[in-house]
Amino acid sequence: MFLKSLVKVLGATALVAAVAAPAQAQQFFRIGTGGTAGTYYPVGGMIANLVTQPGKLIASAVASNGSVANVNGIMGGSLESGFSQSDVAYWAYTGTGTFAGKPKAADLRLIATLYPESIHLVARKGSGIKSVADLRGKRVSMDEPGSGTLVDVRLIMGAYGMTDKDVKAEYMKPNQAGEKMKDGGLDAFFIVAGAPVAAVAELVSSGAGVELVSIAGPEIDKLRASQRFFTPDVIPAGTYQGVGEVKTIAVNAQWVTSAKQPEAVVYEIVKAVYSDAAQKALAAGHSKGKLITLSNAVVGAGIPFHPGAEKFYKEKGLLK
Fold it and tell me: Can you give the pTM of this predicted structure?
């Protein structure tokens, strides 16, 4: 009798374990970043390492074409999360801007605001480019289709009455653009990323003969009045070898996901990122890592927070 009872108990325990097992299965959480020469990729790699818990959650940084591609990947299910410029996330959620005429990304949710992204205009010395207005007729790389940079560049050029047709437009990743500039085949290129950007730093220090061009003035002031996600920004002197202070504009880098991601998973991820140990590692690992702080996490939220992130921020008193 005892043996039969024991068998029943063990059988029931095995059944419960079998039912519970899928809920405890190891989860994979991809983070769409950007090109390997930008800032998204190394920052994404650091964050992935910090939130990974072997046996529970494996996070990985995935190189991509940037913001627009990441948002599309999240909505299409090929990515669990990704980095996006704040403007691109807002446009996707509202079906405006570069997403006008497309279905709204109604399930797009914010995990955290990370850091400001400076808009860089890199020009070949001797090209005569001293402002955005001087790009007319020049050979200019505007970054790849699918990147947030391309969207912003078109807005900036539009502020000066220009479109792609007013320049000899090319659409390359910044590291490819840098190589082409070294070979004399390009006059300027744009990149939107947290400074210092590896591709720009390497180009400047190589002695290739380049300079950073200011993105400021009445036209930019007017642009900021209509596109409020642009903020005034300064790339400090010395950020790049031998380069003085450069006035420009910036957008925020944000980490976004889908409302379909489990609340518990996102909660644990956010909790891990803002732990004391992770904060120290981020600050030591990259200059932009110092800005990935709890106080910055809820700044400039143009889309709703994911419930898991919202729960954590409410616990910390950052959201009501």
Answer: 0.75
